[in-house]
Design a protein that fits this description.
The protein is an alpha/beta fold and 752 residues long. The chain has a seven-stranded parallel sheet, sandwiched between helices. A six-stranded mixed sheet has the order 4-5-6-7-9-8, sandwiched between helices. Helix 3 (66-78) links the parallel strand 1 and strand 2 (85-87).
C-alpha cells in the first residue's frame, strides 16, 4: 500500500526532469563531434550510384520525431531498397545543439546515406551556424547518374537574389537528364484544410518565388520537393512537378489532408516517379476527432525536447502545489495542548550567539546583556559566544570570546569572528545547552543554528535589526541588497529556527509578509526601569554644570550610533530650522559614537549650530540614566529600528518623545499620550518639538504618561517572558518528537 501517493508523484516528476536534463547535457557535451557531414554523404551517394534507374526516399518535417520517424518510418526506408534519404526540410524541431545531436543519432540508424535541406526549423534558435558547421553550406548542388540535385535556402538567411544568380549559372551549364530542386518552403499553397496554416509557411518574398518559377520553366526542372506544412500536395506547373511532403513527424491532424507519410522517388531514363507512402495510424473511424487531439499531444512529446521538459516541469509544479497546499493539512493556530511546565520548573542552560557584545555599545549588545543577567537571576545558566574586543573585560567565564578575522567601520566596531575555530564547538558542546538563542541572521548566528542541529536542541532567533537599512555597509549594489537580499536572508534564516522573537507587532507583520513560517513571539526588550527612578538630583545638576548648560535652556536628548541609517542629518537640519523660528532656547545632546562623527560635526559647524548641538560621544551604560534625566524631551528620527529600546529608556526617565514614524516606533510611541510620531517631514516634526519646548504643562503630562508606560517593560518581566518562550519551544519540540515516534510505530504495524 502506498501511504503517500502525492509525495511519490512529486519525486517521480523531479526524477524525470533530472533525467531529461541529464540527457540534454549528454547530447550537448558528451556525444562525439561531427562536421561537414554532407561532404562524406554526397561522396558515398556518387560512389554507390553510377547509373539509372535509382531510388531514394524523401521525408519532410521529421521534427526529431522518435515515435513516428525513428520507430516507424526509418525501419521501412531501410527495407525499401532506397539508396539514400533526403530530408525536404525541418528535420529538427529547432536549431538547438541538442536537436542536431539527436537527429545525428537518429539518422545514424539508417543503412544508407542521407542529406538535409536547410529549412525553417534548422534556421531557428540560432541554428544556421550549427547547420553550417555540422553539415555544410545552406545551399549546394551535386550530380549523380545523370541527374542534378539542387538544394536551396528558403529561410532568408542567404539573400535570395544571390541564390537566383547562382541557380541560373548552375542550370545554364547543366546537361543532366533530370533536375530536382529541394527548397524548404513550398512555392504554392496546397489548398488543403490545415490547422495553423499561415502565409509565412510558404516561400517568401513573392519576387523570389517568381524568379524561381521562371528558372524552373526556362531550364525544364523536373521536380521540386518542399516541406514546412503538415500535408501532402502534388501539382504540375509549366511542366514542373511540385510536391509538398510534411508528414514524417511533428504535428499532423490525422485527417485526409494531414497524415503521416514519406515519399519514394524513382529516377529512370523515361522520367521521375514519386510514390507517396502513407503510415496508417488511425485506430477506428469513430474516434477520428479524438485521435486528432491525441496526436497533437503526442507530437508535443516527440517533436521537441524542450516542450517535453516544460510539460513535465509543469506537472512537477502542480504536484508540489497539490501536495503542500491542498493535501497537506496545516494548523495555523498555536498548539494549546502544549505543557511548558516541566521546562519552566527546570533550570535551563542557554547558549547565545551574537556578532557584537559589550564593551561595544549598541542596542543589541545592551539587550543581550540585560536578558543574560535577567535569566541568571532566575537561576538559569547562560553562555554568550561573541567577538573579542581590545578593551573587553577578561574576567567573565560565561562569555566565550572569539578572535576576529576582520574588523570593519571607522572605529572597528563591526567584527567578523573566526567561526571556524574548533574550540568554539568544543566549548559549546561541553556547556550542554538546552536551547540556543541567536541574535543575528548570519555569521555567528549561522554557527549557532549549526550547533543547534548538531546538538539536536531548538534554536531561537531574536529579530533585532532591519537589515535593509544597512545596505551602505555591504559591498553589494544598494538596491539589490535593500530590496531583495536582505529580506531573503531574514526569511531563509528565520525559517531554519524553531521560534522567532520580535519586539513589536508591526515587526511580526513584516516577517509574515516576507514569508517567515516559523512560530513568532512578540516580546519587547526589557529596560532597567528602577535604575532610572534612582537617579540623584545632585548628579544631574553636576552633569549640567559640567556641560555648561544654563538652567533656563531646555535640553533635548537623542541616543543613537552615529551612522547613516540613524537619520541624524534629519534632526540637525530640523533643529537648525527650529532655532530660527522658535522662541525657547534649547540644547541638543546627541549621545553615541560612530563612523559618521567627523562628517556630522563638520555639518554642525557649517550650519552655525555648534553652540546648541553637542555630539556627546559614547556614554557608559551605568551613566545613561543620569544623562536621560538631564533632558526635557527625547528626539528620534531613525527608521531602521525594530523597537527602539532607547525610546523606552527615555520614557522610563520621564522624557516625552518626538519620533519619525516607522515600524519599530509605531507600537511604542502613543501619539499625544507619551509623545508624538510624525511622517518624515521636517515641518511637522519641528512643530511637535516646539510644542514640547513651549508648553510646560503638556510636557509634564506627557512625561508622567511616558514613565507609566515604561513601567511594564522591566528586565525581570522581559527575562521571565523569554524564558516562557524557551519552555514552549522545548515543549513543542518534544511533542513533535513524540508524534514522529508514534507515526513510526503505526507505520511498522501496517501490513505490507
Amino acid at each position: 500500500m502506498i501511504r503517500k501517493p502525492l509525495k511519490l508523484l512529486f519525486y517521480l516528476n523531479v526524477t524525470v526532469v533530472l533525467l531529461l536534463l541529464g540527457y540534454k547535457a549528454y547530447l550537448n557535451y558528451f556525444l562525439p563531434e561531427f562536421e561537414g557531414v554532407h561532404a562524406s554523404q554526397v561522396e558515398s551517394i556518387t560512389r554507390t550510384i553510377d547509373d539509372q534507374p535509382f531510388r531514394f526516399a524523401v521525408a519532410g518535417n521529421i521534427n526529431n520525431s522518435v515515435g513516428m520517424f525513428e520507430n516507424r518510418i526509418l525501419p521501412r526506408i531501410n527495407n525499401s531498397g532506397a539508396q539514400f534519404l533526403v530530408s525536404a526540410g525541418n528535420a529538427v524541431s529547432n536549431g538547438g545543439e541538442d536537436k542536431y545531436q539527436a537527429l545525428y543519432g537518429t539518422l545514424g540508424k539508417l543503412d544508407i546515406p542521407w542529406l538535409l535541406t536547410f529549412g525553417e526549423n534548422e534556421h531557428s534558435t540560432f541554428g544556421s551556424y550549427r547547420y553550417y558547421e555540422h553539415f555544410g553550406p545552406h545551399y549546394f548542388s551535386f550530380r549523380v547518374a545523370g541527374s542534378r540535385f539542387i538544394f536551396l535556402d528558403s529561410t532568408g538567411k542567404t539573400p535570395w537574389r544571390w541564390q537566383v544568380r547562382w541557380l541560373h549559372d548552375q542550370l545554364a551549364e547543366d546537361s543532366s537528364d533530370h533536375r530536382m530542386v529541394f527548397v524548404g518552403h513550398p512555392l504554392f499553397s496546397t489548398g488543403n484544410s490545415l490547422l495553423l496554416d499561415d502565409e509565412d509557411d510558404y516561400l517568401q518574398p513573392a519576387p523570389f518565388r517568381q524568379a524561381l518559377l521562371d528558372l524552373f520553366r526556362d531550364y525544364e526542372v523536373d521536380l521540386v520537393l518542399s516541406s514546412n506544412v503538415a500535408t501532402w500536395s502534388d501539382r504540375f506547373e509549366d511542366g514542373t512537378r511540385f510536391v509538398t511532403t510534411g508528414g514524417a513527424g511533428g504535428l499532423v491532424l490525422n485527417t485526409d489532408d494531414s497524415f503521416y507519410h514519406y515519399l519514394m522517388v524513382t529516377v529512370a531514363d523515361d522520367g521521375i516517379d514519386v510514390d507517396m507512402q502513407p503510415i496508417e495510424t488511425r485506430q477506428h473511424p469513430v474516434l477520428r476527432h479524438l485521435e486528432s487531439f491525441w496526436f497533437f499531444i503526442y507530437s508535443l512529446f516527440y517533436t521537441g525536447f524542450l516542450n517535453f521538459v516544460l510539460l513535465v516541469a509543469v506537472l512537477s509544479i502542480l504536484a508540489i502545489k497539490l501536495y503542500t497546499v491542498v493535501f497537506r493539512g496545516r494548523d495555523y493556530y498555536p498548539n494549546y495542548d502544549l505543557d511548558p511546565t516541566p521546562w519552566l520548573d527546570k533550570k535551563l542552560r542557554v547558549a547565545m550567539f551574537t556578532n557584537n557584545y559589550l564593551p561595544f555599545i549598541g542596542g543589541v549588545p545592551i539587550s543581550i546583556d540585560r536578558l543574560r543577567r535577567g535569566l541568571e537571576q532566575l537561576g538559569d545558566s547562560v553562555l554568550v559566544v561573541a567577538p573579542v574586543y581590545q578593551d573587553q573585560p577578561t574576567d567573565d567565564p560565561d562569555v566565550l570570546r572569539v578572535p576576529s578575522l576582520l574588523s570593519m567601520g571607522a572605529h572597528r566596531e563591526f567584527r567578523m569572528a573566526n567561526i571556524f575555530l574548533r574550540r568554539i564547538r568544543r566549548q559549546v558542546r561541553a556547556f550542554r545547552p538546552d536551547v540556543i538563542h541567536v541574535h543575528h541572521p548570519f555569521w555567528l548566528g549561522s554557527l549557532g543554528v549549526f550547533m543547534a542541529r548538531l546538538l539536536n536542541v531548538p534554536v531561537i532567533y531574536t529579530y533585532h535589526t532591519r537589515l535593509e537599512h544597512y545596505a551602505h555597509f555591504v559591498p553589494l549594489p544598494g538596491l539589490l541588497f535593500r530590496n531583495l537580499i536582505s529580506h531573503a536572508l531574514i526569511r531563509r534564516f528565520a525559517n531554519f529556527c524553531d521560534g522567532v522573537i520580535v519586539p513589536t507587532y508591526s515587526t511580526e507583520e513584516y516577517l509574515r509578509m516576507i514569508g517567515v513560517r516559523t512560530p513568532t513571539y512578540v516580546q519587547p526588550t526589557g529596560i532597567e526601569y528602577e535604575r532610572f527612578q534612582q537617579v540623584e538630583e545632585a548628579d544631574v545638576e553636576a552633569l549640567r554644570a559640567k556641560l555648561e548648560l544654563p538652567q533656563d535652556t531646555r535640553v533635548l536628548i537623542s541616543v543613537a550610533r552615529l551612522s547613516n541609517e540613524k537619520n541624524i542629518d534629519f534632526m540637525i537640519d530640523a533643529l537648525t530650522e527650529l532655532r530660527q523660528t522658535g522662541s525657547r532656547a534649547f540644547h541638543f545632546l546627541m549621545i553615541g559614537d560612530g563612523h559618521q562623527r567627523e562628517r556630522l560635526q563638520s555639518r554642525i559647524d557649517e550650519l552655525g549650530m555648534a553652540d546648541c548641538i553637542t555630539l556627546a560621544g559614547a556614554v557608559p551604560p551605568d551613566d545613561m540614566a543620569t544623562w536621560y534625566r538631564l533632558g526635557d524631551a527625547f528626539l528620534f528620527a531613525s527608521k531602521s529600528e525594530t523597537q527602539g529600546m532607547v525610546i523606552l529608556e527615555a520614557m522610563a526617565a520621564g522624557l516625552p518623545v518626538v519620533a519619525v514614524r516607522s515600524s519599530g516606533i509605531d507600537d511604542v510611541v502613543q501619539h499625544g499620550q507619551n509623545g508624538y510620531k510624525t511622517p518624515e517631514r521636517q515641518d511637522l516634526w519641528c512643530q511637535r518639538v516646539a510644542t514640547l519646548l513651549e508648553d510646560d504643562t503638556l510636557r509634564r503630562q506627557l512625561s508622567d504618561n511616558a514613565r507609566a508606560f515604561a513601567r511594564d517593560y522591566s528586565v525581570k518581566k522581559f527575562s521571565g517572558n523569554v524564558r516562557e518562550i524557551y519552555a514552549y519551544v522545548l515543549a513543542a519540540r518534544e511533542d513533535e518528537a513524540g508524534a514522529r515516534t508514534y507515526r513510526g510505530k503505526q507505520a511498522g504495524q501496517e501490513p505490507g
